[in-house]
């Protein structure tokens, strides 16, 4: 059953106890219905046709826009039929922090919900609260978003404190980079399990367009600009593995946002973006009218394992109005000759916050089991339970021992400051760790040896790698929040935990609706090829 606007309003009234009159007026204006039909479609983003799992037939998925304070009412109609990819689905709204009472709508399978089976529908109620910035949405089930189910979610702030820094910020100023495979995910995952080798992508796509060695010359994405104008480009790495390095020939980029948090403007000419991360950059079109390369080379695994891969072909064109409709004449480079690259540790929030000292200290060691598709956090490889964490909590689970060992669930006190240390590791690629329900201060970035307890950036996806990383967050939004590597191949191989805080509050505040309550039984009743 779909939620009606009236029932959403009723739900909002329950969620946010305000004087009734103001709730009705505000909510009516703010509820935004969205329909996502999840379908299989044959698409060829890089000229190679394959079956996909996509929203409304497109890759990337359609842009969702909202205004700060809106509530999205996202109806997902699952119409999947191709058995070479998962047929059930869930949607995660990456970087949106669901409040405790609404935790059941945040889409993490077997943590807060169960997947939606084929030919079924579910409506997620997604209040955006006071968040604004650059977000995205994707399937959170297994590695299904590799098959195409990923798209942008932009929340505009009419009172954006950085508005004076740019002239243009609209549907045509979003840059989505992502890794792309020619095979579908059930065979890809089987190959990973058999070999322990994470699949190496065939292609990198820029706004859904890419090229591979020996493939057709698919026209590059063209970003049109007008001389003299200042553009806010919202960059999202929708990869399941690859790290992209973004630059624009002859132009600087001024970072003003990281993962939905406004930053002090910081001018660079090259930035590395990990899977799941987002940045807003301002580019001033201050060069002569011409075509310029937007370089977006990527890394992710050993290129020799996939001879289709050619990271130099991952790019787009910045075209000034009046320039000829041709490729830039400059050679395809991987970036500026004199890089002035983003150093994450140097980012500062626009509004500085002093992180309180930690009450609880955790250390998370990330270790792969040699030669296997198995990743461990403190010697435990996460395995999704059949009964979601949230259901167990509502049924009375109270301590870590009430969950399977393989759920790797940390029960934390509420309203406390949690510090998590990731010791340095020697893995080939940094792990982009992503927290649901909250963001964290980056007390120590992998990009530097410096400790910053004064004015660190706050974000929700951070590199965990060779130099070690420390993050700190407050458990002021109780919930069972997934904390996992955004290399979804690693996540699927166990590189995940659940940070569960305020279990009594969860029991008091979470009143799931009947549609949600029926998801798990319906999913459990499905034959395995429909799950
Ligand atoms: Cu990882």
Automatic annotation (TrEMBL):
Classification via InterPro entries: Cu-oxidase-like_N, Cu-oxidase_2nd, Cu-oxidase_C, Cu-oxidase_fam, Cu_oxidase_CS, Cu_oxidase_Cu_BS, Cupredoxin
Every Plastocyanin-like domain range: 42-159, 173-323, 382-501
UniProt keywords, alphabetically: Copper, Disulfide bond, Glycoprotein, Metal-binding, Oxidoreductase, Signal
PROSITE patterns referenced in this protein's UniProt entry, alphabetically: MULTICOPPER_OXIDASE1 (PS00079), MULTICOPPER_OXIDASE2 (PS00080)
Domain of life per record: Eukaryota
Gene3D superfamilies hit by this protein: Cupredoxins - blue copper proteins (2.60.40.420)
Keyword Metal-binding: yes
Signal peptide: 1-22
PANTHER family, alphabetized: LACCASE (PTHR11709:SF511), MULTI-COPPER OXIDASE (PTHR11709)
The family this protein is said to belong to: Belongs to the multicopper oxidase family.
Record's protein name: Cu-oxidase-domain-containing protein
């Amino acid at each position: 059953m779909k939620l009606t606007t009236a029932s959403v309003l009723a739900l909002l009234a329950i969620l946010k106890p305000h004087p009734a009159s103001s709730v009705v007026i505000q909510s009516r204006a703010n509820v935004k219905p969205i329909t996502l039909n999840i379908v299989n479609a044959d698409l060829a983003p890089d000229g190679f046709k394959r079956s996909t799992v996509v929203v409304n037939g497109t890759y990337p998925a359609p842009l969702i826009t909202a205004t700060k304070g809106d509530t999205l009412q996202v109806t997902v109609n699952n119409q999947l039929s191709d058995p070479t990819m998962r047929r059930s689905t869930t949607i995660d709204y990456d970087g949106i922090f669901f409040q405790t009472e609404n935790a059941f709508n945040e889409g993490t399978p077997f943590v807060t919900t169960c997947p939606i089976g084929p030919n079924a529908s579910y409506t997620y109620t997604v209040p955006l609260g006071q968040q604004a910035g650059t977000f995205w949405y994707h399937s959170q089930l297994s590695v299904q978003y590799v098959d195409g189910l990923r798209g942008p979610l932009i929340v505009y702030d009419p009172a954006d404190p950085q508005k004076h820094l740019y002239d243009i910020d609209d549907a045509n100023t979003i840059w989505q980079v992502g890794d792309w495979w020619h095979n579908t995910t059930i065979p890809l995952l089987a190959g990973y399990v058999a070999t322990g080798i994470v699949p190496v992508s065939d292609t990198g796509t820029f706004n859904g367009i890419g090229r591979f060695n020996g493939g057709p010359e698919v026209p590059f994405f063209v970003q049109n600009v007008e001389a003299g104008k200042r553009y806010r480009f919202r960059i999202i790495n929708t990869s399941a593995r690859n790290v992209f390095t973004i630059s624009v020939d002859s132009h600087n980029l001024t970072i003003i946002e990281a993962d939905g948090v406004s930053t002090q403007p910081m001018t660079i000419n090259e930035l590395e973006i990990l899977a799941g991360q987002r940045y807003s950059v301002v580019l001033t079109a201050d060069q002569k009218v011409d075509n310029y390369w937007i370089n977006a080379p990527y890394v992710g695994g050993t290129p020799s394992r996939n001879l289709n891969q050619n990271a130099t072909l991952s790019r787009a064109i910045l075209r000034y109005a009046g320039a000829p409709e041709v490729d830039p004449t400059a050679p395809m480079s991987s970036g500026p000759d004199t890089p002035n690259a983003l150093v994450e540790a140097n980012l500062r929030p626009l509004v500085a916050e002093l992180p309180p000292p930690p009450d609880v200290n955790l250390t998370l060691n990330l270790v792969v089991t040699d030669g296997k598709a198995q990743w461990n956090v403190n010697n435990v490889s996460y395995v999704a339970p059949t009964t979601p964490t949230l259901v167990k909590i509502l049924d009375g689970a109270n301590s870590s021992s009430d969950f399977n060992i393989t759920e790797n669930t940390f029960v934390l006190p509420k309203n406390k400051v949690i510090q998590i240390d990731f010791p340095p590791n020697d893995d080939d690629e940094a792990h982009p760790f992503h927290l649901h329900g909250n963001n964290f201060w980056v007390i120590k970035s992998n990009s530097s040896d410096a400790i910053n307890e004064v004015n660190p950036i706050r974000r929700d996806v951070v590199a965990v790698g060779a130099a070690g990383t420390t993050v700190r967050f407050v458990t002021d939004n109780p919930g069972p929040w997934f904390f996992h590597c955004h290399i979804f191949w690693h996540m699927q191989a166990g590189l995940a935990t659940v940070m569960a805080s305020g279990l009594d509050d969860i029991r008091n505040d979470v009143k799931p609706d009947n549609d949600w309550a029926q998801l798990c039984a319906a999913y459990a009743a499905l034959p395995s090829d429909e799950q």
